[in-house]
Amino acid sequence: MYPFTTPTGIVRNRWYIAAFSDEITRDPIERTLLGKPVALYRRENGDPVAMYGLCPHRYYPLARGKVRGDALVCGYHGFAFEADGKCSSVPSQGTGAGFCQPTYPVIEKGPLCWIWMGDADKCDPALIPPYADFELGTPGWRYSSPNYFRVQGRAQLLVDNLMDLTHLPYVHHHISGGEAMADPKMREERRPSSYRVVRMGKLPWTHFNALVWLPENAYEGLADFDQLTDFYGPEFIRTGFPIYTRVPGHETVPPALGAMHIMHGITPETETSCHYFGFSTRNFRTESEELDAFQLASDIRIRQQDADAIEAVEARLEEGAARQRELLVKADGPAVKVRRMIQSMLDAERV
């Protein structure tokens, strides 16, 4: 499965985002995750449940049923499955059944619900990306702009996109200052929780800066910045706005020119499609609903542009890869390293 040597491109022993917390209610929903239909709902105490989504009786979608107590009741013949999967009622025979529907561990942390669909003996909550690293839930930081896309392209295309930001001035040409990412200096860091790429450059004050950081914080000349990209795994990547490291006319960077982290949750739907979850955190203008609205609109536009590009690639990928060897260049270095990491994960799951 391109670009890997394995038949699958999906790493299963990871925690993936199943849904935003507010998507899961007492009304069940279905989402295909890692190639399997999964019914998602909440128990009476509010805990989320993830259950294999097809009734074993006639393979009717369980999410078309209803929740009764903690059980999910099939909308076809009324079979009831408790939160642990046990079939507790078969109405036509007045009993339960010695059958257990598959369920999957779900952990709800803040605005996200994570699901484990890999090997049970490898399921460790500590493997969820560390929220403190990107300031989710940290005092003084604001969570904003949650958004979701279903992308008709394999998850790896999105990973490649996020690890190579030289596409910014072309795909996202509406953003002023994007040319600073066309050929930046880079350094790499191996961290306990992520593989980090730091892109360094200089940035003038632009109209986009004024919309984000406000006109009264403008500077003259060129400011130095770092842009962080953290690969936590095939399921989660952090990018972000430029983080100022030196601003003309200031001995230290003013707090008003703070940081914004942009988070990307990538959950395979099938081998050639994925769910794309986005949100941001920031430590400036933390009470501004105006900035929330601007950031959400901007984020949706940018992610839609990426989704459009990825879907265009996916549509011709097999044909293109069969005819030509992929041309890799210097800017692809981080993406190629990440591909090797994922290939190692895939190989380990074949053993």
Automatic annotation (TrEMBL):
Keyword line: 2Fe-2S, Iron, Iron-sulfur, Metal-binding, Oxidoreductase
Coiled coil (UniProt feature): none
Pfam families per record: Rieske, VanA_C
Ranges for domain Rieske: 15-115
InterPro entries: Cholesterol_7-desaturase (IPR050584), Rieske_2Fe-2S (IPR017941), Rieske_2Fe-2S_sf (IPR036922), VanA_C_cat (IPR044043)
SUPFAM superfamilies documented for this protein: Bet v1-like (SSF55961), ISP domain (SSF50022)
GO terms of molecular function: 2 iron, 2 sulfur cluster binding; metal ion binding; oxidoreductase activity
Gene3D superfamilies: Naphthalene 1,2-dioxygenase Alpha Subunit, Chain A, domain 1, Rieske [2Fe-2S] iron-sulphur domain
Record-given protein name: Rieske 2Fe-2S domain-containing protein
Organism: Alteraurantiacibacter buctensis
